[in-house]
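From the pipeline queue, job 12 of 40. The input is one protein chain; the requested action is below.

Action: predict structure.
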Amino acid sequence: MATPPISPTGLLALDDLLADDERAMRDVVRDYVADRVRPEVAEWFEAGWIPARELAREMGRLGLLGMHLQGYGCSGASATAYGLACLELEAGDSGIRSLVSVQGSLAMYAIWEFGSEEQKQQWLPGMASGELIGCFGLTEADFGSNPGGMRTSAHRDGADWILNGSKMWITNGSVADVAVVWARTEEGIRGFLVPTDTPGFSAHEIKKKLSLRASVTSELVLADVRLPADALLPGAKGLRGPLSCLNEARFGIVFGTLGAARDCLQTTIDYAIDRVQFDRPIAGYQLTQKKLVDMTLELDKGMLLAMHLGRLKDSGTIRAAQVSVGKLNNARAALAIARECRSILGGNGITLEYPVIRHMNNLESVYTYEGTNEMHTLVVGEALTGLAAYR
């Protein structure tokens, strides 16, 4: 006799790990995704376009932009609540979570952590509301895993700075109002706030993507961009500045990837229960159940890891290598889950009528950005041995 099915995350009663305010925030974001994102995201993905400004304002009204920061219009939520929001956003689409992550954990965090009081007052309230959009220019075409090799440069000209160079794979780039650009100077690597209407600055959207299509991805070009002295982020000197921003974004990915995995798995369970072959649901076959069980175990282990890291971050004790453990494990597990789910759906698994291949394609990018699988492996390896194998 069949028993009522439970959800994958319900198996271990993971909701019991959440405080009331965390559960409430999670539910707000889940409802927003269900009402606003799910009905349209397949079309956005197919068209390679999203209403980025409209979505930013909507999510600003919900308090999602820079939600883990204090002051300047930011809601000051816990790191765990922010992670749960990322999970629900990515259950809709990785591109939606990326918009929020780049806005809050990269662009806004850089200003909040390293900017002057004047810079914070100028930019953060508008970014928190979604009226202003930011992007984060670190990666270059030839320097991804090794940002220290960047060629973008800045030199002084009197009291001003002149920037030249380019940045690649920049989320939000061609819709941004301000770009946080990292450049090599005589003093080392420094960060600059570049209003995108500054002469010499241009952003060119990258097309022909087969992943993160519901996301704006751009190349930034800086040709003799002249900035005043107060465009420099005073608190960021060397690579520590941009790398600490990346660590903030990676934390969101630890949770976010699980949202995509959960959506794939729940979709597949529902499909397998309804899909009849040889006069019985394919969910009733042992091979299919083994796949569903294995995927659920990986999802729930990833959730336990994410929650533990969230508590460490909230306590102020989290270390960079621990974030790498989370990103490495959960991005890898989520991608494996998406691929297995696609196989269970068979031919239906390759259509946008189901979210699985969209999540699978997106996760191929998430597996790579904010530190590749290989680089996070070596970060963890260095933590275990004390030897930096990537140098």
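Job complete. Residues 14-129 form a domain with the Butyryl-Coa Dehydrogenase, subunit A; domain 1 fold (CATH 1.10.540.10).
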